[in-house]
Design goal:
Elements (H helix, E strand, L loop, with lengths): L1 H39 L17 H14 L3
Helix pairs in contact: 1-2
Length: about 70
């Protein structure tokens, strides 16, 4: 009985961690996407401002930047 309670608690923690990671990713993606959209009107390359954003397309570069940024959070 106690083992079932421990397993249930671990599953809840994993689920909460997954939700937290997704929320952080979405927030970081929005921030990086707004930065990259803003810098599209500037004559400079925005990908040098964000770590890990070496992609040519805006969405792929933003995703790479977010993953690069999130690696610093661990």
């Amino acid at each position: 009985m106690k083992m079932d309670h421990v397993i249930s608690r671990e599953k809840n923690m994993i689920r909460e961690d997954s939700i937290t990671f997704n929320l952080i990713f979405i927030l970081c993606f929005i921030v990086c996407f707004v930065i990259s959209l803003f810098t599209q009107i500037l004559p400079t390359k925005w990908s040098s401002w964000l770590p890990g954003a070496e992609e040519k397309s805006l969405i792929d570069g933003t995703s790479s930047a977010v993953y690069g940024f999130m690696s610093y959070l661990n």
